[in-house]
Amino acid sequence: MKYVVLIHSNPQPWGHPTIDFTEVGRAIPAAEREAMGKEFDEMLKELSASGELVSGLALDAPSTTRTFRWEGKRPVSTDGPYAESKEQLAGFFVLDCATPERAEELAAKFAGPGDVIELRPEWEF
User: Fold this and answer.
1) What's the whole-model pTM score?
2) Domains of the chain
3) Band of the pLDDT at 71, cuts 50, 70, 90?
């Protein structure tokens, strides 16, 4: 079954990896952040090799967003993200896991300083 790992964060200024741009992430010594980055990259290589990593993307700043809403009989476009919130969607990964437990185990590894991780099963249609 496929799962989406959604990474919500509030980097200031916006940037990736988010650990380098969040207040809590910048409080971690640079050498430790670098080691965490290498560990994360190694995890992605392992997931890619196992076939569990389907895809992943880092997203540009919320200020670059165009939002489309249905008004009356047509869509209307506006600048900026849909939701006014502290954390914004910073990126996502799609995983293909044999069990929900495996997906939860992997999602926990995506959690980093200053991030909120959401794991959601894909709805196939």
Assistant:
1) 0.84
2) 2-62+85-121 (3.30.70.1060)
3) confident
